[in-house]
Amino acid sequence: MPRKKAADRTGPVKTRSRSGCLECRASRVRCDTKKPVCTRCRERGLPCSTHFVLKWQSEFASRGLAFGRAGVWSKARAADGGQSTCSPSPPASLSLDDVREWCVVPGVRPWAFINSGVSTFDQPDQVDVALNELGAVVPVNRQEIASWLQANYIRSPRPMPPLSLFPNAPESGHGPLFEYYLQQVCPRTTASSTSSSPFASVILPFCVSASPTLFQAIQALGACHWSRFDPTYSATGLRLKSATLKDLRRRLFSEGSLTCSADPEVLVIMMMLCLYEIVDKCDHHWTIHLKGAKDLIRLRRQQMIAQSQSAPDPVTVFAEHFFAFQDVMGRTACGEEVLFGTDYWKVGDRNIDLWMGCSPELVSVLSAITELSRTRRKLGCDADRISFSLRAASLEHQLDGLVQEVGDGDDETLASVAEAKRLAAVLYLHCALYEACPTTPLVVEYVRRILRVVSELLDQGSHASVTWPVFVAAVELDPSQDELWADSESDAMSGRLLVLQALAVMAESTISNVARTRAVITKVWQARDLDLVKTPGATPHCCNDWEWYVAPISTAMSLA
After folding, report:
1. How far apart are CA 558 and CA 560, in angstroms?
2. Tell me: domain 17-65, CATH 4.10.240.10, correct?
3. Against a cut of 0.70, is the pTM above it?
4. Which residue of 346, 377, 412, 446 sits 20 to 30 Å from the alpha carbon of 485, by its own alpha carbon?
């Protein structure tokens, strides 16, 4: 019976469903696409599957078939039998290059920030340091470390070791760790390009008469930092740290806290252990050494007052400033009670410290801002509010007129770092005391100024002592206006891009725990991005912007 012509057919035209199951398509019958099982498969007891089948263009080309809808199809008569065949017939004027369009693939960097993940919603008050440590920090100085190792410890034949400068050092087979501390750790503790770090200039002469316990602590710190480049040193650092802790506990138990407080070596050992915990994980363990050192320093100062003793030695002064600075800078983020108050800093001392990267007067102002911010929510009467406003205005005026001075020599890098910290202090004051937020014009302006200085420092190859300015500017970036300034090579400089690039460079060129810092920054960004879709005024009136976004997730941070 001849087939009906198209004009003689009645009813709707039946077309094959593109979403039919594999069984119906294989049998060339129409599938009603019912879910989870179509009617035909249910009646016949067949497995109904709609999985995609991958088809490869090379396979179709080898069989002489067209791939998908490639080409233009037409019917033509075969020359040998008069049969009607279908064959692809591309137009003469159209080539593959004419229809091919290449899409630009954006550059993907390991430090890129993507605001997604189940943990973002399941655990909004926790930061994922492991993710930022493993996949988001780019090592930039591994070649430098490898060259140093090649020049010092990978030689053939191996030269005879020189005479030791420290006869009291233990012969534990970890001699390279002490040299690694001097050659690689110490330079990463200061932004000065002309002066030596106090971790070398102050601690090294003291080591001449030090006990083996101090050498173990220094070697443990060197191994912990070295493990960033070679994970095999992690176990070595852990064994040395355990031995140091064991010796320190035995000494505190046998001699007593009062006797140990008079020995500067105990503070130096605790300082090395504190740095070990910061470099390792930067969790609450480093604050244990901080609080222990606070008790010893308090006992020593009480003895000095009772016995009318003179000023302490340089090692003790440096150790005290180390712990006090760590405490002040870390608590600017979380807003907790300050352990080391303003009495550890000389009023009017504007000389820039080599390790702190700023003047003691600036640290004193930061400590006062943190303490004043803690009293903001306890203002009960008008007199308290007036006193609060006057004190805040006084601190703001002190920051605006603060000129930090470089000591001997003209160190422009150190001066730039100190200025970045002063600008960050002004920004921190307005956010902690004046209810400022990322959309505040002053905040927008100071974020740009801080990141401009940081960008110039990174271009100069200076990466140390800028963790706190980067952190303060990053957490106060406006998510809806990320553009900072126009760049000659691109249309605009993104604020988040600059921050992530800075953190990537700082990861291996400082002793700060950049992974923890980056984890907190990205957590703040995630919270701000999620709140963009919320109605204005979602922040409780009892909390300012800093207390709502930054403080809850910034406990036990090291920003020194």
Report:
1. 6
2. yes
3. yes
4. 412
